[in-house]
Specification:
With 315 residues, the chain is α+β, with helices and mostly antiparallel strands. The protein folds into 2 domains: 166 residues, N-terminal domain of MutM-like DNA repair proteins (Alpha-Beta Barrel), CATH 3.20.190.10; 125 residues, Helicase, Ruva Protein, domain 3 (Orthogonal Bundle), CATH 1.10.8.50. It is 23% helix and 23% strand. It is built from 6 helices and 11 strands. The strands form 3 sheets. The protein has a 5-stranded antiparallel beta sheet with strand order 2-3-4-8-9. A 4-stranded antiparallel beta sheet has the order 1-6-7-5. Helix 1 crosses helix 6 and helix 5 packs across helix 6.
């Protein structure tokens, strides 16, 4: 699943092309990509997102999405954790501003194309935009595995500050690259939790943007066993962990994110190359780059975790 670096690469790539652009037309090719979108009246027979769409409900969502998105003006893309959204000129019935919310899921892609470009594989939604500086472009939302989605969602004040965030992302904490991230609060909460530190890093209500890949890399750099309980992490080690988290994110951003296959690419269809810098994730049996001990794999909460048994002894 795309994590913070991958989503931020997409956000930064979209920004110059969509900021200030007008959506000339929209075409929904697969209504399953609208699982998080609810029609204006909310009367398509569904109680929320994430459920299976009937043919009639899919048609209703597609028509509603196409009607409401066509003609709006797009603002500068924003992100919190793994959620990406573009503020728009439209407003909800309640008067709240609306954003075009994108969740990439496992394999979602936001691709910028010329109007006459060949079709991308697995395109689910297509938008034609007109930019005052860049002219006409096409934005393709492609998703092979269909866990991602687009939606119009209301923007409301965040619980942790004056920022406006989509309602579907209201529960998501800030990430360590956010200027308003509260280091002291994160460190204090981390050290009061009885859960293993790997599980805590994946808790998007504590710190956002961290997934399985980057959690393993951060713990390797901080020399922490993934099952070390938060309450057993000392003050100095907790600071080392946060420092390592920022360093891993920064390097991954510089290298365009992590791509193991064609499922994650940037807006131009190019893969990232941070996978070549991985020291723990997916390296079961390979020698640790620090001490030479073979990397081990264990399962925590149904997910694979990779660590060095020598450098990352359990505390």
């Amino acid at each position: 699943m795309p994590e913070l670096p991958e989503v931020e690469v997409v956000r930064a790539g979209l920004a110059p092309a969509v900021t200030g652009a007008r959506v000339a037309a929209v075409q929904v090719l697969d209504p399953r990509a609208l699982k998080r979108h609810l029609p204006t009246a909310g009367d398509d027979g569904l109680g929320g997102h994430g459920v299976t769409l009937t043919a009639a409900a899919g048609a209703a969502r597609s028509a509603d999405f196409e009607r409401r998105v066509a003609g709006i003006t797009l603002g500068a893309p924003e992100r919190r954790g793994k959620f990406l959204w573009i503020p728009t000129s439209a407003a909800a019935v309640s008067g709240e501003p609306l954003a075009l919310l994108a969740h990439l899921g496992m394999s979602g892609q936001m691709l910028l194309r010329a109007h006459d470009a060949d079709d991308d594989r697995h395109v689910r939604i297509r938008m034609w935009i007109e930019h005052p500086d860049h002219g006409e472009l096409r934005v393709d939302f492609a998703d092979q595995r269909l866990f991602g989605s687009l939606a119009l969602d209301a923007l409301r004040p965040a619980a942790d500050g004056p920022d406006l965030v989509p309602t579907q992302a209201a529960h998501i904490a800030r990430d360590p690259l956010d200027p308003a991230f509260d280091d002291a609060r994160f460190l204090a909460l981390l050290r009061t939790r009885a859960s293993g530190v790997k599980k805590l890093l994946l808790d998007q209500t504590l710190v956002s943007g961290v997934g399985n890949i980057y959690a393993d890399e951060v713990l390797w750099r901080a020399r922490l066993h993934p099952e070390t309980r938060g309450v057993r992490v000392g003050p100095r080690k907790a600071v080392e962990l946060l420092t390592a988290l920022r360093a891993v994110f920064a390097q991954a951003l510089a290298e365009g994110g992590t791509s193991f296959d064609a499922q994650y690419v940037n807006v131009n269809g190019q893969a990232g190359y941070f996978a070549h810098s991985l020291n723990a994730y997916g390296r079961t049996g390979a020698p640790c780059a620090r001490c030479g001990e073979p990397i081990r794999r264990l399962v925590i909460g149904g997910r694979s975790s990779h660590f060095c048994p020598r450098c990352q002894r359990r505390r």
